[in-house]
Specification:
The protein is of the alpha/beta class. It has 3 domains: about 5-60, Nucleic acid-binding proteins (OB fold (Dihydrolipoamide Acetyltransferase, E2P)); about 85-110 and about 235-410, Rossmann fold (3-Layer(aba) Sandwich); about 115-180 and about 185-230, Beta Barrel (OB fold (Dihydrolipoamide Acetyltransferase, E2P)), CATH 2.40.50. It contains 9 helices and 22 strands. The protein has helices at about 80-95, 150-165, 200-210, 250-265, 285, 300-310, 330-335, 350-360, 370-385; strands at about 5-10, 20, 25-30, 35-45, 45-55, 110, 115-125, 130-135, 140-145, 175-180, 185-190, 215-220, 220-225, 230-235, 235-240, 270-275, 290-295, 320, 340-345, 365-370, 390-395, 405-410. The strands form 4 sheets. An 8-stranded mixed sheet has the order 6-21-22-20-19-16-17-18, sandwiched between helices. α1 crosses α9 (about 370-385) and α2 (about 150-165) runs antiparallel to α3. The chain is flat and about 60 Å long.
Length: about 400
């Protein structure tokens, strides 16, 4: 049974929750800060914050009216300097747990309103539609009126999207929205609503998309309306991303990562492998310096990269290859031609590929990751194989959350 208890918060956990130690074990309390005394309703290891009895000196006023309910942000109430130190510490701790002592660079942040893509939930409630993020630890949906993290163009779109989705989302169903602010406008993909649409409904949706000024509206990845094609710049290229495809959350962060990766080049680098390349966010920047082999298992992403390559002048050759690097990593012999290898895998990391790199003679490896724990595992494998960790740079593109992007450079 839940019970109300007074707790002393000792530290922040890896997810950004305050952690109190009790006789029964650790209790995690969202929105509580180290050094605070709080009252919380406790059930098992979770505590729901009821009130702050003695606040921390590092508690500040959140920037958003939804903070404390919306699960999109966890740490708007934390002093900026303390927040940056904690987030950098997530990376240092993950490395230390693998026995890696590294000089982690200061956290590099992006500005408010810089997030260009978002995965939102839409739900029919009565005669209207809610759009937003789920509440922290709940299925309840916060109907976003403001958001200081998302690009302002996305926030301004929400009222019109609510009207558009009345034509699509029925009660009690939910839909998932993937919204991207491309360089030339807004791209929206709606998924999870499998109801067949009549020709009249499709025409009405296209009319609503026109009124909103969308560049593209897709349903489950199938374009329903296009006034053009969404374009995203990568190096010298302009890429047309497939609906709902993965992109770095912030163009500003992507530019920072690209600068670090390109900066890892040795003077004699001539051939580069871009592994888990996606649509080629870094392939074209790399191709300004050397010949590139770009590999991914997502066919639509590889096709988008190929199309962008055909339309781009002034870059060196980019060869693409469709391959599942989790099941079939590049082997030691295949790695021989490359001076530099970049890998940017999903959260699960690239263990199999790291093992092959550890056996290779590749001089420089640049690793990009959104998961410090799996990155530390992969770095340990390569360090044990003879690499030296040269730099570790954390990048905060998911503001006020526990997520952190990391770029690590290794050399033999």
């Amino acid at each position: 049974m839940p019970e109300k208890r007074r707790l002393q918060i000792e530290r922040l956990g890896a997810q950004g929750d305050g952690v109190a130690e009790t006789d029964a074990g650790s209790v995690f309390v969202a929105f509580a800060l180290p050094g605070e005394t709080v009252d919380a309703v406790v059930e098992a290891e979770r505590g729901r914050l009821a009130s702050v009895v003695a606040p921390s000196r590092q508690r500040v006023q959140p920037v958003c009216e939804h903070f404390g309910r919306c699960g999109g942000c966890a740490l708007q109430h934390y002093d900026a300097e303390a927040y940056r130190s904690w987030k950098r510490g997530l990376v240092a701790t993950a490395l230390s747990m693998r026995g890696i002592e590294a000089d982690v660079a200061p956290l590099v942040g992006v500005g408010l309103g810089s997030r260009r893509r978002a995965a939102l939930t839409a739900r029919r409630e009565g005669s209207g539609v809610r759009i937003g993020f789920h509440e922290a630890g709940s299925n309840a949906l916060v109907d976003l009126q403001v958001c200081h993290v998302l690009a302002p163009e996305i926030v301004k779109l929400l009222p019109g999207l609510r009207e558009l989705l009345k034509l699509l989302v029925g009660s009690p169903s939910e839909a998932r929205l993937h919204v991207l602010l491309a360089d030339n406008g807004l791209d929206v993909d709606v998924s999870g609503n499998s109801a067949k649409l009549s020709p009249g409904a499709r025409a009405a949706l296209a009319e609503a998309a026109t009124a909103l000024g969308l560049v593209r509206l897709s349903l489950d990845g199938d374009p329903l309306f296009q006034s053009g094609v969404p374009l995203v710049r990568a190096g010298a290229a302009q890429i047309v991303p497939p609906p709902g495809t993965f992109l770095q959350a912030s163009a500003e962060a992507e530019a920072l990562i690209s600068k670090l990766v390109v900066g890892a080049f040795g003077k004699r680098s001539q051939r580069v492998a871009d592994l888990f390349c996606g649509v080629g966010a870094f392939s074209f920047a790399l191709a300004s310096k050397a010949k590139v082999l770009a590999i991914d298992n997502d066919r639509s992403a590889i096709e988008a990269l190929e199309e962008a390559k055909r339309r781009t002048q002034g870059v060196r050759a980019i060869e693409t290859r469709l391959r599942d690097l989790f099941q079939e990593p590049l082997a030691r012999k295949e790695l021989e031609p490359f001076d530099l290898v970049l890998f940017d895998p999903p959260r699960g990391g690239a263990k199999a590929q790291a093992e092959m790199l550890a056996k290779s003679k590749v001089v420089t490896v640049a690793a990009v990751s959104c998961n410090p724990a799996t990155l530390a595992r992969d770095l340990r494998i390569m360090i044990d194989g003879g690499y030296r960790l040269e730099s570790v740079t954390p990048i905060d593109q998911f503001l006020f959350t526990h997520h952190v992007e990391v770029v690590a450079v290794l050399r033999r």
